[in-house]
Design a protein that fits this description.
This protein is an alpha+beta fold. It contains four helices and five strands. The protein has one domain: YaeB-like fold, CATH 3.30.2310. A five-stranded mixed beta sheet has the order 1-5-4-3-2. A hairpin with a 4-residue loop joins strand 4 (64-71) and strand 5 (76-84). Helix 1 packs antiparallel against helix 2. The longest helix has 13 residues, at 20-32. The two termini are 21 Å apart.
Length: 97
C-alpha cells in the first residue's frame, strides 16, 4: 500500500518516542502488503475496526490509535490522525467518520 503521509507518524513519534518502533513496524507492514478490502486488512491487522469510512488501528498495545482512510482499489491509505488513547477517547476525530 502507498501510505500517505508518513509525516504524521514521524511527528507523533517525536512527541511520543516510546511509540516510534511500533509505528515504524505498522508503516513497514503496510508498505509490504496490498489490501483489496477491509477483511483482507483485518487478516494482517486483527485489531482494526471500521468506523464509517475510516479504519482505526490499535497500535502499541492499546496506547496509540492510528486513524486512516483506505482506498483499496488504488492501494492507498491516508493517515488522518495518530492519537494517544486519551486523545482518541475525546472523540473529535469522529467528525470525519
Amino acid at each position: 500500500m502507498h501510505v500517505i503521509t508518513r509525516k504524521r507518524l514521524l511527528e507523533f513519534s517525536k512527541k511520543h518516542p516510546d511509540a516510534a518502533t511500533t509505528l515504524e513496524h505498522w508503516y513497514r507492514t503496510m508498505k509490504r502488503h496490498e489490501f483489496a478490502s477491509f477483511p483482507e486488512l483485518r487478516r494482517i491487522f486483527p485489531i482494526v475496526d471500521q468506523v464509517g469510512r475510516l479504519v482505526i488501528f490499535n497500535v502499541g498495545g492499546n496506547k496509540v490509535r492510528l486513524i486512516a482512510y483506505s482506498v483499496y482499489r488504488k492501494k492507498r491509505i491516508y493517515i488522518r490522525h495518530v492519537l494517544t488513547h486519551k486523545e482518541y477517547d475525546k472523540g473529535k476525530w469522529k467528525e470525519e467518520a
